[in-house]
Amino acid sequence: MSDIEIARAAKKKPIQDIGDKLGIPTEHLLPYGHDKAKVSQDFINSTKDREDGKLILVTAINPTPAGEGKTTTTVGLGDGLNAIGKNAMICIREASLGPNFGMKGGAAGGGYAQVVPMEEMNLHFTGDFHAITSAHSLLSAMIDNHIYWGNEQEIDIRRVAWRRVVDMNDRALRNVTLSLGGVANGFPREGGFDITVASEVMAILCLATDLKDLQKRLGDMIVAYRRDRSPVFCRDIKADGAMTVLLKDAMQPNLVQTLENNPAFVHGGPFANIAHGCNSVIATTTALKLADYVVTEAGFGADLGAEKFLNIKCRKAGLTPSAVVIVATVRAMKMNGGVAKADLDGENVDAVKAGCANLGRHIENIQKFGVPAVVAINHFVKDTDAEVQAVMDYVAAQGAEAVLSKHWADGSAGSADLARKVVEIIDTKESKYAPLYGDDMSLFEKIETVAKEIYRADEVLADQKIRDQLKIWEEQGYGNLPVCMAKTQYSFTTDPSRRGAPDGHSVPVREVRLSAGAGFIVVVCGEIMTMPGLPRKPAAETIGLNDAGEIEGLF
Protein backbone atom coordinates (compact mmCIF):
# COMPACT_ATOMS: atom_id res chain seq x y z
CA MET A 1 0.00 0.00 0.00
CA SER A 2 1.06 3.59 -0.54
CA ASP A 3 1.80 5.90 2.39
CA ILE A 4 -1.52 7.69 1.99
CA GLU A 5 -3.44 4.40 1.89
CA ILE A 6 -1.70 3.20 5.04
CA ALA A 7 -2.45 6.50 6.76
CA ARG A 8 -6.09 6.42 5.66
CA ALA A 9 -6.51 2.92 7.11
CA ALA A 10 -5.10 3.92 10.52
CA LYS A 11 -7.15 3.13 13.61
CA LYS A 12 -6.86 6.53 15.22
CA LYS A 13 -7.87 7.20 18.80
CA PRO A 14 -9.74 10.34 19.86
CA ILE A 15 -7.19 13.07 20.53
CA GLN A 16 -8.41 13.28 24.13
CA ASP A 17 -7.12 9.72 24.66
CA ILE A 18 -3.71 10.71 23.32
CA GLY A 19 -3.66 13.71 25.63
CA ASP A 20 -4.59 11.46 28.53
CA LYS A 21 -1.45 9.36 27.90
CA LEU A 22 0.57 12.52 28.54
CA GLY A 23 -1.51 13.66 31.47
CA ILE A 24 -3.08 16.57 29.60
CA PRO A 25 -6.64 17.18 30.90
CA THR A 26 -9.35 17.45 28.27
CA GLU A 27 -10.07 21.08 29.19
CA HIS A 28 -6.51 21.98 28.16
CA LEU A 29 -6.89 20.52 24.68
CA LEU A 30 -8.30 22.77 21.97
CA PRO A 31 -9.54 20.22 19.41
CA TYR A 32 -9.43 20.69 15.67
CA GLY A 33 -11.78 17.89 14.72
CA HIS A 34 -11.42 14.50 16.40
CA ASP A 35 -7.77 13.68 15.78
CA LYS A 36 -5.72 16.84 16.41
CA ALA A 37 -5.65 19.51 19.06
CA LYS A 38 -3.63 22.40 20.37
CA VAL A 39 -2.33 22.35 23.95
CA SER A 40 -3.21 25.39 26.05
CA GLN A 41 -0.58 27.81 27.28
CA ASP A 42 -1.96 27.48 30.81
CA PHE A 43 -1.18 23.76 30.83
CA ILE A 44 2.26 24.38 29.35
CA ASN A 45 2.96 26.91 32.12
CA SER A 46 1.92 24.34 34.75
CA THR A 47 4.69 21.93 33.67
CA LYS A 48 7.61 24.33 34.15
CA ASP A 49 8.90 22.77 37.38
CA ARG A 50 8.88 19.18 36.16
CA GLU A 51 12.11 17.32 35.46
CA ASP A 52 13.16 17.11 31.81
CA GLY A 53 13.27 13.87 29.88
CA LYS A 54 16.07 12.81 27.53
CA LEU A 55 16.32 14.59 24.17
CA ILE A 56 17.23 12.54 21.08
CA LEU A 57 18.03 14.25 17.79
CA VAL A 58 17.50 12.40 14.50
CA THR A 59 19.54 13.72 11.59
CA ALA A 60 20.85 12.22 8.35
CA ILE A 61 23.42 12.12 5.59
CA ASN A 62 23.03 14.61 2.74
CA PRO A 63 19.74 13.89 0.93
CA THR A 64 19.81 12.06 -2.39
CA PRO A 65 17.09 11.03 -4.85
CA ALA A 66 17.56 7.50 -3.46
CA GLY A 67 15.85 8.49 -0.21
CA GLU A 68 17.02 8.55 3.41
CA GLY A 69 13.87 8.54 5.57
CA LYS A 70 14.79 10.89 8.41
CA THR A 71 11.22 11.69 9.47
CA THR A 72 10.23 8.05 9.01
CA THR A 73 13.06 7.04 11.34
CA THR A 74 12.08 9.72 13.86
CA VAL A 75 8.55 8.34 14.00
CA GLY A 76 9.74 4.73 13.96
CA LEU A 77 12.14 5.35 16.85
CA GLY A 78 9.41 7.04 18.89
CA ASP A 79 7.12 4.05 18.35
CA GLY A 80 10.00 1.67 19.08
CA LEU A 81 10.77 3.33 22.40
CA ASN A 82 7.12 3.03 23.44
CA ALA A 83 7.09 -0.61 22.30
CA ILE A 84 9.99 -1.51 24.61
CA GLY A 85 8.16 0.06 27.54
CA LYS A 86 9.50 3.60 27.55
CA ASN A 87 7.41 6.76 27.87
CA ALA A 88 8.33 8.54 24.66
CA MET A 89 6.92 11.14 22.32
CA ILE A 90 7.87 12.71 18.99
CA CYS A 91 8.42 16.33 17.97
CA ILE A 92 8.56 17.12 14.24
CA ARG A 93 7.96 20.08 11.95
CA GLU A 94 4.86 21.00 10.00
CA ALA A 95 4.87 20.66 6.22
CA SER A 96 5.08 23.56 3.80
CA LEU A 97 2.65 23.62 0.88
CA GLY A 98 5.44 24.60 -1.50
CA PRO A 99 7.39 21.31 -1.32
CA ASN A 100 4.16 19.30 -1.06
CA PHE A 101 3.09 20.50 -4.49
CA GLY A 102 6.67 20.69 -5.77
CA MET A 103 8.96 17.69 -5.52
CA LYS A 104 9.85 16.95 -1.88
CA GLY A 105 6.47 15.64 -0.80
CA GLY A 106 5.00 15.58 2.69
CA ALA A 107 6.56 15.56 6.13
CA ALA A 108 4.66 12.92 8.10
CA GLY A 109 6.93 9.89 7.77
CA GLY A 110 6.22 6.87 5.60
CA GLY A 111 5.14 3.24 5.48
CA TYR A 112 4.19 1.99 8.94
CA ALA A 113 6.10 4.80 10.67
CA GLN A 114 3.82 7.76 10.10
CA VAL A 115 2.11 10.53 12.00
CA VAL A 116 -1.60 10.97 11.29
CA PRO A 117 -3.80 12.60 10.10
CA MET A 118 -1.34 12.63 7.21
CA GLU A 119 -3.47 14.49 4.69
CA GLU A 120 -4.41 17.35 7.01
CA MET A 121 -0.84 17.66 8.28
CA ASN A 122 0.48 18.08 4.76
CA LEU A 123 -2.18 20.63 3.79
CA HIS A 124 -3.81 23.29 5.98
CA PHE A 125 -3.51 21.39 9.31
CA THR A 126 -4.47 23.80 12.13
CA GLY A 127 -3.72 26.94 10.13
CA ASP A 128 -0.37 27.81 11.72
CA PHE A 129 1.37 28.57 8.42
CA HIS A 130 -1.56 30.69 7.29
CA ALA A 131 -1.32 32.67 10.53
CA ILE A 132 2.42 33.20 10.01
CA THR A 133 1.85 34.28 6.40
CA SER A 134 -0.89 36.68 7.52
CA ALA A 135 1.20 38.19 10.30
CA HIS A 136 4.12 38.67 7.93
CA SER A 137 1.81 40.20 5.30
CA LEU A 138 0.29 42.57 7.86
CA LEU A 139 3.73 43.98 8.61
CA SER A 140 4.48 44.28 4.88
CA ALA A 141 1.27 46.26 4.38
CA MET A 142 1.91 48.47 7.41
CA ILE A 143 5.43 49.37 6.24
CA ASP A 144 4.22 50.60 2.86
CA ASN A 145 1.22 52.27 4.50
CA HIS A 146 3.54 54.07 6.92
CA ILE A 147 5.59 55.38 3.99
CA TYR A 148 2.43 56.42 2.11
CA TRP A 149 1.02 58.45 5.02
CA GLY A 150 4.00 60.71 5.57
CA ASN A 151 6.86 58.35 6.51
CA GLU A 152 7.21 59.55 10.11
CA GLN A 153 10.12 57.15 10.68
CA GLU A 154 11.96 58.63 7.67
CA ILE A 155 12.39 55.22 6.03
CA ASP A 156 14.68 55.28 3.01
CA ILE A 157 12.45 53.45 0.52
CA ARG A 158 15.60 52.20 -1.23
CA ARG A 159 16.47 50.34 1.97
CA VAL A 160 13.28 48.52 2.94
CA ALA A 161 14.66 45.18 4.14
CA TRP A 162 11.33 43.44 4.72
CA ARG A 163 10.29 41.14 1.87
CA ARG A 164 6.88 39.55 1.41
CA VAL A 165 6.08 35.83 1.72
CA VAL A 166 3.73 33.19 0.36
CA ASP A 167 3.62 29.48 1.25
CA MET A 168 4.20 28.22 -2.27
CA ASN A 169 7.12 27.68 -4.62
CA ASP A 170 6.77 30.56 -7.10
CA ARG A 171 9.96 31.71 -8.79
CA ALA A 172 8.12 34.54 -10.60
CA LEU A 173 7.80 36.38 -7.27
CA ARG A 174 11.48 36.38 -6.32
CA ASN A 175 11.89 39.96 -7.52
CA VAL A 176 8.91 42.25 -8.10
CA THR A 177 8.13 45.95 -8.50
CA LEU A 178 5.62 47.35 -6.01
CA SER A 179 3.19 50.29 -5.95
CA LEU A 180 2.88 50.87 -9.69
CA GLY A 181 -0.18 52.66 -11.03
CA GLY A 182 0.11 56.21 -9.84
CA VAL A 183 0.01 58.37 -6.71
CA ALA A 184 -2.88 56.52 -5.09
CA ASN A 185 -0.84 53.32 -4.88
CA GLY A 186 2.18 54.72 -3.08
CA PHE A 187 5.85 55.06 -3.99
CA PRO A 188 7.16 52.53 -6.54
CA ARG A 189 10.07 50.41 -5.33
CA GLU A 190 11.62 47.02 -5.85
CA GLY A 191 10.67 44.15 -3.57
CA GLY A 192 10.31 40.41 -3.59
CA PHE A 193 8.84 37.31 -2.01
CA ASP A 194 10.33 34.49 0.04
CA ILE A 195 8.55 31.26 0.90
CA THR A 196 6.75 31.43 4.27
CA VAL A 197 9.10 28.94 5.91
CA ALA A 198 11.97 31.39 5.27
CA SER A 199 10.14 34.22 7.06
CA GLU A 200 11.73 35.61 10.20
CA VAL A 201 8.25 35.38 11.71
CA MET A 202 8.45 31.60 11.30
CA ALA A 203 11.88 31.51 12.95
CA ILE A 204 10.63 33.67 15.81
CA LEU A 205 7.54 31.54 16.43
CA CYS A 206 9.82 28.49 16.60
CA LEU A 207 12.27 30.10 19.04
CA ALA A 208 9.90 32.08 21.29
CA THR A 209 9.12 30.71 24.75
CA ASP A 210 5.72 32.38 25.25
CA LEU A 211 3.51 35.15 23.88
CA LYS A 212 5.39 37.88 25.73
CA ASP A 213 8.68 36.68 24.30
CA LEU A 214 7.03 36.37 20.89
CA GLN A 215 5.91 40.01 20.87
CA LYS A 216 9.32 41.25 22.03
CA ARG A 217 11.07 39.30 19.28
CA LEU A 218 8.61 40.55 16.66
CA GLY A 219 9.22 44.10 17.81
CA ASP A 220 12.99 43.56 17.52
CA MET A 221 12.81 42.73 13.81
CA ILE A 222 14.55 45.25 11.55
CA VAL A 223 12.26 46.13 8.64
CA ALA A 224 14.10 49.03 6.97
CA TYR A 225 16.86 51.62 7.31
CA ARG A 226 16.88 55.40 7.28
CA ARG A 227 19.18 57.52 5.10
CA ASP A 228 21.68 57.66 7.95
CA ARG A 229 21.63 53.80 7.93
CA SER A 230 19.99 53.63 11.38
CA PRO A 231 17.53 50.68 11.66
CA VAL A 232 13.76 50.93 11.73
CA PHE A 233 12.20 48.20 13.88
CA CYS A 234 8.85 46.47 13.65
CA ARG A 235 7.86 48.13 16.92
CA ASP A 236 8.50 51.54 15.31
CA ILE A 237 5.78 50.68 12.78
CA LYS A 238 3.55 49.58 15.71
CA ALA A 239 2.81 46.21 14.09
CA ASP A 240 4.11 43.87 16.81
CA GLY A 241 0.90 43.86 18.88
CA ALA A 242 -1.43 43.01 16.00
CA MET A 243 1.01 40.40 14.68
CA THR A 244 1.04 38.72 18.10
CA VAL A 245 -2.76 38.61 18.04
CA LEU A 246 -2.67 36.84 14.67
CA LEU A 247 -0.12 34.34 16.04
CA LYS A 248 -1.78 33.74 19.42
CA ASP A 249 -3.22 30.32 18.55
CA ALA A 250 -0.35 29.37 16.26
CA MET A 251 2.03 29.55 19.25
CA GLN A 252 0.32 26.56 20.87
CA PRO A 253 1.79 23.15 19.92
CA ASN A 254 -0.30 20.73 17.84
CA LEU A 255 -0.89 17.28 19.36
CA VAL A 256 -1.48 14.34 17.00
CA GLN A 257 -0.59 10.63 17.02
CA THR A 258 1.43 7.99 15.22
CA LEU A 259 -0.09 4.98 13.48
CA GLU A 260 0.53 3.12 16.75
CA ASN A 261 -1.35 5.79 18.74
CA ASN A 262 1.68 7.31 20.40
CA PRO A 263 1.74 11.08 21.01
CA ALA A 264 3.47 13.54 18.70
CA PHE A 265 3.83 17.31 18.64
CA VAL A 266 3.90 18.74 15.12
CA HIS A 267 4.67 22.44 15.36
CA GLY A 268 6.55 25.03 13.34
CA GLY A 269 8.49 24.45 10.16
CA PRO A 270 11.47 26.61 9.18
CA PHE A 271 13.44 25.18 6.23
CA ALA A 272 16.86 23.81 7.09
CA ASN A 273 18.65 25.06 3.97
CA ILE A 274 17.43 28.66 4.29
CA ALA A 275 16.41 28.84 7.97
CA HIS A 276 17.22 26.87 11.13
CA GLY A 277 15.26 23.72 10.29
CA CYS A 278 13.85 22.65 13.67
CA ASN A 279 10.40 22.36 15.20
CA SER A 280 9.38 24.92 17.84
CA VAL A 281 11.21 25.38 21.12
CA ILE A 282 7.88 25.50 22.96
CA ALA A 283 6.89 22.07 21.58
CA THR A 284 10.26 20.50 22.39
CA THR A 285 10.55 21.95 25.90
CA THR A 286 6.94 21.01 26.71
CA ALA A 287 7.45 17.46 25.42
CA LEU A 288 10.52 17.10 27.67
CA LYS A 289 8.24 17.80 30.64
CA LEU A 290 5.67 15.19 29.52
CA ALA A 291 7.80 12.23 28.42
CA ASP A 292 10.98 10.44 29.53
CA TYR A 293 12.31 10.37 25.97
CA VAL A 294 11.65 12.96 23.27
CA VAL A 295 12.63 12.19 19.67
CA THR A 296 12.97 15.21 17.40
CA GLU A 297 14.49 15.85 13.99
CA ALA A 298 16.46 18.52 12.19
CA GLY A 299 15.99 19.14 8.49
CA PHE A 300 18.08 17.76 5.62
CA GLY A 301 21.61 16.48 6.31
CA ALA A 302 23.55 16.91 9.54
CA ASP A 303 25.68 19.63 7.93
CA LEU A 304 22.58 21.85 7.87
CA GLY A 305 19.83 20.74 10.25
CA ALA A 306 21.92 19.19 13.01
CA GLU A 307 24.49 21.99 12.88
CA LYS A 308 21.74 24.57 13.36
CA PHE A 309 19.92 22.49 15.97
CA LEU A 310 23.12 22.24 18.00
CA ASN A 311 24.52 25.73 17.33
CA ILE A 312 21.26 27.75 17.34
CA LYS A 313 18.27 25.97 18.88
CA CYS A 314 20.04 24.24 21.76
CA ARG A 315 22.09 27.37 22.51
CA LYS A 316 19.01 29.61 22.52
CA ALA A 317 16.71 27.24 24.43
CA GLY A 318 19.24 25.83 26.89
CA LEU A 319 18.75 22.27 25.62
CA THR A 320 21.25 19.43 26.04
CA PRO A 321 20.65 16.50 23.68
CA SER A 322 21.48 13.08 25.12
CA ALA A 323 22.03 11.26 21.81
CA VAL A 324 22.05 11.78 18.06
CA VAL A 325 20.80 9.26 15.49
CA ILE A 326 22.29 9.65 11.99
CA VAL A 327 20.07 8.10 9.32
CA ALA A 328 21.59 6.48 6.25
CA THR A 329 20.42 4.05 3.58
CA VAL A 330 22.29 1.52 1.50
CA ARG A 331 20.76 3.09 -1.61
CA ALA A 332 22.08 6.54 -0.72
CA MET A 333 25.53 5.11 -0.03
CA LYS A 334 25.52 3.63 -3.53
CA MET A 335 24.49 6.96 -5.06
CA ASN A 336 27.31 8.69 -3.16
CA GLY A 337 29.54 5.95 -4.54
CA GLY A 338 28.68 6.91 -8.10
CA VAL A 339 25.75 4.62 -8.97
CA ALA A 340 22.90 6.15 -11.01
CA LYS A 341 19.41 6.10 -9.52
CA ALA A 342 18.18 3.69 -12.21
CA ASP A 343 20.85 1.14 -11.20
CA LEU A 344 20.38 1.14 -7.43
CA ASP A 345 18.48 -2.17 -7.18
CA GLY A 346 21.44 -4.40 -8.04
CA GLU A 347 23.95 -5.39 -5.34
CA ASN A 348 27.10 -3.26 -5.42
CA VAL A 349 29.13 -3.58 -2.25
CA ASP A 350 32.07 -1.63 -3.68
CA ALA A 351 29.83 1.38 -4.41
CA VAL A 352 28.43 1.18 -0.87
CA LYS A 353 31.96 1.29 0.54
CA ALA A 354 32.91 4.18 -1.75
CA GLY A 355 29.84 6.18 -0.74
CA CYS A 356 30.26 5.73 3.01
CA ALA A 357 32.65 8.69 3.16
CA ASN A 358 29.63 11.01 3.30
CA LEU A 359 28.30 9.15 6.33
CA GLY A 360 31.72 9.17 7.96
CA ARG A 361 31.99 12.93 7.60
CA HIS A 362 28.66 13.40 9.41
CA ILE A 363 29.71 11.05 12.20
CA GLU A 364 32.90 13.06 12.72
CA ASN A 365 30.98 16.32 12.70
CA ILE A 366 28.48 15.21 15.34
CA GLN A 367 31.31 13.99 17.55
CA LYS A 368 32.70 17.55 17.52
CA PHE A 369 29.65 18.65 19.54
CA GLY A 370 30.32 16.06 22.26
CA VAL A 371 27.03 14.17 21.82
CA PRO A 372 27.00 10.32 21.58
CA ALA A 373 25.85 9.16 18.13
CA VAL A 374 24.48 5.98 16.58
CA VAL A 375 23.80 5.28 12.90
CA ALA A 376 20.37 3.99 11.86
CA ILE A 377 20.43 2.08 8.59
CA ASN A 378 16.94 2.67 7.24
CA HIS A 379 16.16 -0.62 5.51
CA PHE A 380 14.89 -0.94 1.94
CA VAL A 381 13.57 -4.32 0.78
CA LYS A 382 16.19 -4.71 -1.96
CA ASP A 383 19.16 -4.09 0.33
CA THR A 384 21.39 -7.18 0.52
CA ASP A 385 23.01 -8.56 3.67
CA ALA A 386 26.46 -7.89 2.23
CA GLU A 387 25.62 -4.23 1.52
CA VAL A 388 24.20 -3.70 5.01
CA GLN A 389 27.27 -5.35 6.55
CA ALA A 390 29.54 -3.06 4.54
CA VAL A 391 27.88 -0.03 6.15
CA MET A 392 28.06 -1.58 9.62
CA ASP A 393 31.75 -2.40 9.18
CA TYR A 394 32.51 1.12 7.99
CA VAL A 395 30.69 2.70 10.94
CA ALA A 396 32.50 0.41 13.39
CA ALA A 397 35.81 1.52 11.90
CA GLN A 398 34.77 5.11 12.70
CA GLY A 399 34.39 4.19 16.37
CA ALA A 400 30.59 4.28 16.26
CA GLU A 401 27.76 1.74 16.02
CA ALA A 402 25.10 1.10 13.40
CA VAL A 403 21.73 -0.61 13.78
CA LEU A 404 19.53 -1.92 10.96
CA SER A 405 16.00 -0.58 11.37
CA LYS A 406 12.93 -1.87 9.51
CA HIS A 407 10.34 0.56 10.82
CA TRP A 408 9.03 1.48 7.36
CA ALA A 409 7.82 -2.08 6.77
CA ASP A 410 7.23 -3.31 10.34
CA GLY A 411 6.55 -0.25 12.51
CA SER A 412 7.80 -0.51 16.10
CA ALA A 413 8.65 -4.19 15.71
CA GLY A 414 11.22 -3.15 13.12
CA SER A 415 12.69 -0.30 15.20
CA ALA A 416 12.86 -1.99 18.61
CA ASP A 417 16.57 -2.82 18.21
CA LEU A 418 17.33 0.79 17.36
CA ALA A 419 15.30 1.96 20.37
CA ARG A 420 17.20 -0.39 22.70
CA LYS A 421 20.55 0.80 21.35
CA VAL A 422 19.60 4.46 21.81
CA VAL A 423 18.55 3.82 25.41
CA GLU A 424 21.78 1.92 26.03
CA ILE A 425 23.85 4.81 24.68
CA ILE A 426 21.98 7.34 26.81
CA ASP A 427 22.44 5.16 29.91
CA THR A 428 26.15 4.47 29.38
CA LYS A 429 27.59 7.50 27.60
CA GLU A 430 27.42 10.98 29.04
CA SER A 431 26.55 13.79 26.67
CA LYS A 432 29.16 16.53 26.79
CA TYR A 433 27.28 18.79 24.42
CA ALA A 434 28.79 22.18 23.60
CA PRO A 435 28.20 24.48 20.61
CA LEU A 436 30.92 24.57 17.97
CA TYR A 437 31.75 28.25 18.59
CA GLY A 438 31.37 30.74 21.40
CA ASP A 439 29.12 33.79 21.47
CA ASP A 440 32.07 36.17 21.67
CA MET A 441 33.73 35.04 18.44
CA SER A 442 33.40 37.54 15.57
CA LEU A 443 30.62 36.95 13.07
CA PHE A 444 32.99 36.22 10.21
CA GLU A 445 34.97 33.82 12.41
CA LYS A 446 31.72 31.99 13.20
CA ILE A 447 31.02 31.65 9.47
CA GLU A 448 34.56 30.38 8.92
CA THR A 449 34.23 27.90 11.79
CA VAL A 450 31.14 26.26 10.30
CA ALA A 451 32.61 26.31 6.78
CA LYS A 452 35.89 24.75 7.82
CA GLU A 453 34.81 22.43 10.64
CA ILE A 454 31.52 21.17 9.17
CA TYR A 455 31.82 21.67 5.40
CA ARG A 456 35.64 21.11 5.38
CA ALA A 457 36.18 24.15 3.18
CA ASP A 458 39.59 25.76 2.85
CA GLU A 459 38.25 29.29 2.77
CA VAL A 460 35.19 31.54 2.88
CA LEU A 461 34.87 33.98 -0.01
CA ALA A 462 33.16 37.23 0.94
CA ASP A 463 33.70 40.65 -0.60
CA GLN A 464 34.52 43.71 1.46
CA LYS A 465 30.93 44.93 1.45
CA ILE A 466 29.78 41.79 3.28
CA ARG A 467 32.67 41.93 5.75
CA ASP A 468 31.93 45.60 6.47
CA GLN A 469 28.26 44.81 7.02
CA LEU A 470 29.15 42.14 9.59
CA LYS A 471 31.39 44.64 11.42
CA ILE A 472 28.60 47.23 11.48
CA TRP A 473 26.25 44.70 13.08
CA GLU A 474 28.91 43.89 15.65
CA GLU A 475 29.22 47.59 16.48
CA GLN A 476 25.42 47.76 16.84
CA GLY A 477 25.46 44.97 19.45
CA TYR A 478 24.61 41.94 17.31
CA GLY A 479 28.07 40.35 17.34
CA ASN A 480 27.06 37.70 19.91
CA LEU A 481 24.46 36.15 17.60
CA PRO A 482 24.95 32.71 16.01
CA VAL A 483 25.07 32.32 12.23
CA CYS A 484 22.41 30.52 10.21
CA MET A 485 23.97 29.20 7.00
CA ALA A 486 21.73 29.16 3.92
CA LYS A 487 23.28 26.56 1.63
CA THR A 488 22.33 23.70 -0.68
CA GLN A 489 21.30 20.58 1.20
CA TYR A 490 22.73 18.17 -1.37
CA SER A 491 26.42 18.62 -0.70
CA PHE A 492 28.97 19.71 1.89
CA THR A 493 29.94 22.29 -0.74
CA THR A 494 27.77 24.98 -2.33
CA ASP A 495 27.68 22.88 -5.52
CA PRO A 496 24.67 20.50 -5.28
CA SER A 497 26.25 18.03 -7.73
CA ARG A 498 29.28 17.27 -5.52
CA ARG A 499 28.38 14.18 -3.49
CA GLY A 500 30.50 12.23 -1.06
CA ALA A 501 32.87 14.02 1.33
CA PRO A 502 34.69 16.70 -0.68
CA ASP A 503 37.26 18.97 0.90
CA GLY A 504 39.58 21.69 -0.34
CA HIS A 505 36.69 23.79 -1.64
CA SER A 506 35.59 27.39 -1.09
CA VAL A 507 32.31 28.70 0.37
CA PRO A 508 31.19 31.89 -1.40
CA VAL A 509 28.97 34.17 0.70
CA ARG A 510 26.56 36.03 -1.56
CA GLU A 511 24.56 37.94 1.03
CA VAL A 512 24.07 38.33 4.78
CA ARG A 513 20.80 39.19 6.50
CA LEU A 514 20.27 40.25 10.11
CA SER A 515 17.35 38.45 11.78
CA ALA A 516 17.42 40.54 14.94
CA GLY A 517 14.13 39.20 16.27
CA ALA A 518 14.96 35.54 15.74
CA GLY A 519 18.46 36.19 17.02
CA PHE A 520 20.78 35.02 14.25
CA ILE A 521 22.59 36.19 11.11
CA VAL A 522 21.45 34.48 7.89
CA VAL A 523 24.44 33.78 5.63
CA VAL A 524 23.37 33.08 2.03
CA CYS A 525 25.96 30.88 0.31
CA GLY A 526 26.19 30.05 -3.38
CA GLU A 527 23.06 29.87 -5.49
CA ILE A 528 20.60 29.01 -2.71
CA MET A 529 17.15 30.57 -3.14
CA THR A 530 14.88 31.78 -0.35
CA MET A 531 11.99 31.39 -2.80
CA PRO A 532 12.19 27.95 -4.47
CA GLY A 533 10.66 27.22 -7.86
CA LEU A 534 8.53 24.29 -8.96
CA PRO A 535 10.21 21.45 -10.89
CA ARG A 536 9.46 20.68 -14.53
CA LYS A 537 6.80 18.17 -13.43
CA PRO A 538 5.51 19.36 -10.05
CA ALA A 539 3.75 16.90 -7.74
CA ALA A 540 0.66 19.11 -8.06
CA GLU A 541 0.05 17.66 -11.53
CA THR A 542 -0.88 14.28 -10.02
CA ILE A 543 -2.73 15.44 -6.89
CA GLY A 544 -6.51 15.41 -6.97
CA LEU A 545 -9.72 13.90 -5.64
CA ASN A 546 -11.00 10.47 -6.68
CA ASP A 547 -14.65 9.50 -7.18
CA ALA A 548 -14.99 8.85 -3.46
CA GLY A 549 -13.84 12.37 -2.66
CA GLU A 550 -10.52 11.11 -1.28
CA ILE A 551 -7.18 12.81 -1.93
CA GLU A 552 -4.83 10.99 -4.28
CA GLY A 553 -1.25 11.78 -5.25
CA LEU A 554 -0.26 13.37 -1.94
CA PHE A 555 2.75 11.60 -0.44
Tell me briefly what this model is:
With 555 residues, this protein is an alpha/beta fold. The chain folds into three domains: 303 residues, 3-Layer(aba) Sandwich (Rossmann fold), CATH 3.40.50; 118 residues, Domain 2, N(10)-formyltetrahydrofolate synthetase, CATH 3.30.1510.10; 83 residues, Roll (Formyltetrahydrofolate synthetase, domain 3).
Describe it for me?
This protein has 555 residues and is an alpha/beta fold. The protein folds into three domains: 3-126 and 250-428, Rossmann fold; 129-246, Domain 2, N(10)-formyltetrahydrofolate synthetase (2-Layer Sandwich), CATH 3.30.1510.10; 443-525, Formyltetrahydrofolate synthetase, domain 3, CATH 3.10.410.10. The protein is 37% helix and 20% strand. The chain contains 20 helices and 25 strands. The strands form six sheets. Strands 1, 2, 3, 4, 5, 6, 14, 15, 16, 17, 18 and 19 form a twelve-stranded mixed beta sheet that branches. Strand 18 (373-378), helix 16 and strand 19 form a beta-alpha-beta unit. Helix 7 packs antiparallel against helix 11 and helix 15 runs parallel beside helix 16 (385-397). It starts with a helix and ends with a strand. The relative contact order is 0.16.
Return residue spans where pLDDT drops below 50 for at least 5 consecutive residues: none
Overall geometry? globular
Please identify the structural class as seen in this structure.
Answer: alpha/beta
* Rounded mean pLDDT score: 94
Class of the largest domain, according to the CATH hierarchy?
Answer: Alpha Beta
**What would you report as the Rg, rounded to the nearest angstrom?**
23 Å
State the distance separating the first and last CA atoms.
12 Å
- Total of helices: 20
Q: Could you state the CATH homologous superfamily of the largest domain?
A: P-loop containing nucleotide triphosphate hydrolases
What would CATH call the architecture of the largest domain? 3-Layer(aba) Sandwich
Q: How much beta, percentage-wise?
A: 15-25%
